[in-house]
Amino acid sequence: MGPTAKRTWIHAWLFLSPAMILLIAFTHYPAAVTLFHSFFSTPRGKRSAKFVGLENYETLIADDTFWTVLVNNLWYALATIPLSIGIAIAMALWVDSKLKGRSFVRMAYFTPTVLPLIAVANIWMFFYTPGFGLIDQIRGAFGFAQQNWLGDPESALNAVIVVAIWKEAGFFMIFYLAALQTIPTSLREAAAIEGAGRWYFFRRVTFPLLMPTTLFVSVNAIINSFRLVDHIFIMTEGGPDNASSLLLFYIYETAFRFWDTAYASTLTVVLLLILFTVAIGQFLLLDKRVHYR
Amino acid sequence: MHFTKKLGIGAVAAAMSLSLAGTAQAVDLQFFFPVAVGGKAADTIEALTSEYAAANPDVKIDAVYAGSYQNTVTKALTAARGGQPPQLSVILSVDMFTLIEEEAIVAFDDLIKTDEDKAWLKAFYPAFMENSQTGGKTYGIPFQRSTPVMYWNKEAFKKAGLDPNTPPATWKELVEFGKKLTVKDASGNVTQWGVRIPSSGFPYWLFQGLTTQNDVILANSDGNKTNFADPKVIEALQYLVDLSTKHEVMAPGIIEWGATPKAFFEGESAIMWTSTGNLTNVRTNAPFDFGVAMLPANKRRGAPTGGGNFYIFKDSTDAQKAASLDFIKWITAPKQAAKWSIATGYVAPRADAWETAEMKAYVADFPPALVARNQLEYAVAELSTYQNQRITSIFNDGLEAAITGKSSPEEAMNDAQQKADKILKDYR
Prior knowledge:
The complex is a heterodimer of chains A (293) and B (428).
Chain A: H1 3-37, H2 55-62, H3 64-96, H4 102-114, H5 117-128, H6 134-141, H7 156-182, H8 185-194, H9 198-209, H10 211-227, H11 230-235, H12 247-256, H13 261-286
Helix pairs in contact in A: 1-13, 2-13, 3-4, 3-7, 3-10, 4-7, 7-10, 10-13, 12-13
Chain B: H1 3-24, E1 27-33, H2 41-55, E2 59-65, H3 69-81, E3 88-92, H4 96-101, H5 115-122, H6 126-129, E4 133-134, E5 137-138, E6 141-146, E7 148-153, H7 154-159, H8 171-181, E8 183-184, E9 190-196, H9 204-213, H10 231-245, H11 260-265, E10 269-275, H12 279-285, E11 290-293, E12 303-304, E13 306-312, H13 318-331, H14 334-344, H15 357-365, H16 369-375, E14 379-380, H17 388-403, H18 409-424
Parallel strand pairs in B: 1-2, 1-3, 9-10, 12-14
Antiparallel strand pairs in B: 3-13, 4-5, 6-13, 7-10, 7-11, 8-9
């Protein structure tokens, strides 16, 4: 290897190292350690951790709560992802058009994103309070009976889903709004001359051109559907009987309430696997249908 | 300036500050405290801490508000695992077994030496000490302690044709009064519920009132065996469920703990069960005349105790441990305990605190403050076991399943007992 080639190598490593060190220290190393810990028992006081092989995974398969939260998380993802993306596109199209007080509407839609989720959860708690909460007061005016939104296993998960959608849609709208503004107006004019309707234009022109944004937003939405659990701490603490508990919330409970770090590691491995599979699938499948330019 | 020169100056400065600290013999203490009720609790703790610091210039106390009880134990244990625990903290009395198992705390017996100290330890109410001792040693000092009591709206009682000065004294009366107090509008929707026993987050606590009244204890004092599937426990749960489903005097589903005082003020419920720690909050904010009573009796009277104890952490110097003990002795002394109790409604944990002039004046002016103390005679230890958070979580899940009608009380309790046995068998 000549001196020039060597120097190029050194430069390459130097340029790579800041990002690489951060990535390894805060992503790869913790993931590897988590996997390692999932094969050991939890150390408690004098009893140190010992190798237990797949025992934690056997516990996991037999754990009803794990399956409950996994199914809950699935519903949570299935509801929040398409709904928040759909609403985001609708809002973006609406505020992209020429309407009075446009910047005010844009700001209003974006506000939920700016507010911390914990504060939001406290506000929604008041909305949901049976009897004298906002929703029940409005329903009461029309003669409906009071409804215990957060205290009923049938509605608790939906109640926290609504908050997540409300929180996310405004954020995604910003990306769509930016993407819409890059679509040349000549396309719209051309379509108008050809006599294409608004829905046809959206379906065949706007939506395909928004695909890169949709990919980006849906990756974010999926990550968020496993990550956004702050409001559950405030609103339901996963109750009643785990009806509104999600995987990450259960991991937190196991690690920092029950102090069962080994089992929490096992649960985390499952979460990592899910996210890994989703990410791979998304890039392989969707990449073909996305037009980057 | 040259780098080595800078370093030299830094070293001199560091050495100077070290020697200064050395001459003053200052002890630094970090103190974590939680706040679980509305009102002025945090202000009062900080005022008391600075009062102590002013009287003891050689001790520096850093009082850190650490959030809820749950946040506080999480922070303290995380810090202890990282090798930098606080020197002392107020943490739920029921977390004692967890803290012992993590080897995070020391027993007070190992710190106290004089007869005077021993006498101090003996003067706390026995009901509070049940949750503070195990294996013949004392690990916690009662401070922020409470017990659930029943608050009732006297105006609502009058409107319902009941004597405003007679609260329900038995389970049967609670149902009878509740039926009279439940008001419906023309379309049949309830506008005022008779009773509110909140069940969100930690339903086991108020439920333990019912089990105690039904004369059954939920866990042994070694903390390694629970009694969830006892027929008397199931019977108590059936009663709780019946309040909503059969008698229809309480709102169905899980009832939010935090919104309970507000629901009482708004007239949503005429009777509520909640912590005595809310007493000052209710006194300040209830827009009507209210009463405070012991929980109703069934086979006997009964209630759990609750709230937080002082713990001293292991990983500190002997000087820090001694200073922590001294601070705890000071803040639980009659005068300070009285001040704390009056500001919040928590039960002053020692008989002598109730003998102070301030406390006597307060009680004379506001007799409901006595109810919680008098109830201590019938109180039992709050449910506490090894792996406490997990066991209570299993129990809570069972209670919630029964309250929301997902399973029958019997199924729910048998299931909870089985799960608890699986975890606790390692501790027997």
